[in-house]
Amino acid sequence: MASSPLLMALLLALAAVASAQLSPTFYATSCPNALSTIKAAVQSAVANEKRMGASLLRLHFHDCFVQGCDGSVLLDDTSSFTGEKTAGPNQNSLRGFDVVDNIKKQVEAICNQTVSCADILAVAARDSVVALGGPTWTVKLGRRDSTTASLSQANSDIPSPASNLSALISSFSKKGLSTTDMVTLSGAHTIGQARCTVFRSRIYNETNIDASFASSVKSNCPSTGGDNNLSPLDLQTPTTFDNDYYNNLVNKKGLMHSDQQLFNGGSTDSQVSSYNSNPSKFASDFAVAIVKMGDISPLTGTQGQIRLNCRKTN
Description:
By secondary structure, the chain is mostly helical. It has helices at about 5-20, 35-50, 50-65, 95-110, 115-130, 150-155, 165-175, 180-185, 195-205, 210-220, 245-250, 255-260, 270-275, 280-295; strands spanning about 195, 230.
């Protein structure tokens, strides 16, 4: 029986969705100045506040671990919709939303409804690392934005700073990332800061911690109160993307429980030692691992939408 034109059109559309792939050249013709526009905005934001580089990198990570890399983390709550911003790992913690808003505004001005918020997060993460002296990589593009978010998945799937090694391995494995990827991506903690509330238990109660390091951090993180007081994840070079994070772990100076778990007599000790002694290997491995992370369940083809405002659906 002959197929109707409508059925054929539907099948072709479904095939296009199924075969759609992320591509580094996705905006080559539709918005050739997109990447340079994002880069300039990120450089300006990081120059204004070095910490913003870590914040933008973290947004990409927290986006990808919930529903895939779909921009869901950027959605504000509405009267009929609860987003991910109030989830435990995100509330009073995630930042940089205003920078993303500014980038989106600039990109919309040159290419209306062409570049997704999810892609902006992926590119801004790369440009932030580069701005702080880290490696570069080719970002795959073509993600589209979700029309939904998941508060429950944000609470369950983003690894906790209290996680032990097996829980960390499991969290990343659930997203298709290996234990090697997990140790590599954890190196993002070579930049940025953490709140007292997420590392207090470690510095006051754990024994696998350098005493002088614990003492120095306690000065800004009392045993009670001061929950939002900040300490650098890497005391040595907190605004430089390097391999000092791994040096800290080897010397029992990991700030959070989950950090020190990577070097605590377990299966990942050797990889930490390798990155500690070979910064170029860490840099090259990080570039590969974060591209892999950016491939987590993207919306492509006709899925999702290109949001005009990253905070709300169209």
